Amino acid sequence: MNRVVAQNPALASIVDTSLAGKMNPANQAYGAVQDLKDAATTLQAAGIANPTFTDARAYFQWGAAPGPQVALAPSDANISQILAPYYTAAQMRGNGVTATTTVGHGDRRSLVGSGRQQHKQFYLRNR
Fold first, then answer.
1. Between the CA of residue 105 and those of 31, 35, 76, 77, 123, what are the distances in Å?
2. Are 66 and 89 in a shared domain?
3. What whole-number distance in Å separates Cα of residue 104 and Cα of residue 124?
4. Which of 2, 34, 58, 60 is the most exposed place for a label (fewest CB within 10 A)?
């Protein structure tokens, strides 16, 4: 919430930055918008001119460092190779990523929408 107010000081009188304020749905909406802005900015810096929701999903699921790499990868890329510098094998298994999981291999019901490459789904499943 402090980042929200720092980015837009006019919100200082509206946004409650206290612990109690973090539970307020309106404040949570401001925070979510800030998170989306951070994702878009990071993805743009990584070379994705117009980040889509699916690109942002990679950022949110895998983090600021590997997320853009996943978003830029072709659908047939092995995601465990992309994530290996950032996550242990156990962490990847816990997220459904195995040695044969590709970036594009996903549950189409879990993420619907249009995008640069709609077939990239980030709720991953093993082949």
1. 30, 26, 8, 10, 8
2. yes
3. 8
4. 2
